[in-house]
């Protein structure tokens, strides 16, 4: 079984993990995996030799990130154009059974990422007498905008990899054509692929997502060395607003950030168009979660290819209340435990947003404590930045609250026509301070409701 990726997979280590991250189901029954290995842009999964697969069987394969410390850095990852390690998230995908090699191979899927197009077929392909780049025509957004394919075309199992001399942008409409020439794209029986043209090329991810990227800067006498570019493993969905704390006592770096589940947000429905449903986006943002990860700087230099991966733990959520959790900050407790504080916003029975501040403590043995409110009667601003500082060796949390409008603000901003205020701090004499000034003075009769805005 071959899993083809749209980019080259990296091997974190020559040593395999002690557990297999893949699960194969045949007609919803688990199949025994004998071995799995990754190379170039594919993963090869070998099932037990006694496994029987019929032509009408339904097959699926799942991948799950291994979060155990001894295996976390053996998970699959890719490198982007800036050499950052991007970890492959959990996934489940159906498996297409290979077509008979007595038939011509047909195209299953085409994906474009930056300056690479990957074409996947329904059979294993022969790499002998493979076609050159001039047998593939790539256009972007219109028929006159051609992108040159490098002469060296790679064939890996059932995929063709087209290196481009120019990058393709996300959301571009891409057309790929294959024409006859000196080389032949064929299967193992030398049955050639028929010339084709397809505009069904994926250039945008199905769901939007961001990752938390990290770098380690090491200053020296003459310059600053930047090393260990990597993302935090397990950060699927939308991730933003990170907070970081370095504990000198343990030489550990703690990171926390806001995570939004984007699995229900459809990012790409028609090639060339990026759009989604605003209501679904708002619902997702109103159910955000605080995630965290920990890295020990003592482990630098021991893990990853050329020791270039920061050993972040797999991202995990901090226990918290339902609602929108944002603006996380980190600090240190007197006992050495890490403290996290964040804003929690929910709608009350009247549909009005209510914001409060929760905190939790990280214990090395028991994990994060249940979140607790810092004070019951505070009214922090919904988007106030939070800061944890140390005063007399105790953590102090700072935030902002907006005071109610003053008389001056009411007069200048609301501009009421008639506005009565007490002439003195005590007494019963009311003075008209509205726009009408003295013209509004007089004796009024009837029913009136006066709004008391300030004591």
**Total number of β-strand segments?**
33
The helix count comes to: 2
The percent range for strand residues is 35-45%
Residue-averaged pLDDT:
82
- Which percent bin holds the helix content? under 10%
Q: How many whole angstroms does the radius of gyration measure?
A: 30 Å
List low-pLDDT spans: 302-307
- The structure class reads mainly beta
Distance between the termini: 75 Å
Features:
mainly beta; 5-stranded antiparallel beta sheet; 455 residues; Immunoglobulin-like; 4-stranded antiparallel beta sheet
How would you sum up this structure in a few lines?
The protein has helices spanning 278-285, 407-414, and strands at 2-4, 9-10, 22-26, 29-31, 33-39, 42-47, 59-63, 77-79, 85-87, 91-94, 107-121, 136-140, 146-147, 154-156, 159-168, 174-178, 196-198, 201-202, 213-219, 224-231, 238-247, 252-260, 289-296, 316-317, 324-332, 338-347, 353-363, 367-368, 372-373, 387-391, 394-398, 420-422, 430-432. It is mainly beta. The chain has four domains: 2-94, no CATH class; 107-202, Immunoglobulin-like (Sandwich); 213-398, no CATH class; 406-455, no CATH class.
Q: Would you kindly provide a written description of the structure presented here, covering whatever features stand out?
A:
The protein is elongated, with a radius of gyration of 30 Å. The relative contact order is 0.09. It starts with a strand and ends in a 23-residue tail after the last strand. Strands 25, 26, 27, 28 and 29 form a five-stranded antiparallel beta sheet that branches. A four-stranded antiparallel beta sheet has the order 4-3-7-10, with no helix packed on it. The chain has helices at 278-285, 407-414, and strands at residues 2-4, 9-10, 22-26, 29-31, 33-39, 42-47, 59-63, 77-79, 85-87, 91-94, 107-121, 136-140, 146-147, 154-156, 159-168, 174-178, 196-198, 201-202, 213-219, 224-231, 238-247, 252-260, 289-296, 316-317, 324-332, 338-347, 353-363, 367-368, 372-373, 387-391, 394-398, 420-422, 430-432. The protein folds into four domains: 2-94, no CATH class; 107-202, Immunoglobulin-like; 213-398, no CATH class; 406-455, no CATH class. It has 455 residues and is mainly beta. The longest helix is centred in the middle third of the chain and has 8 residues, at 278-285.
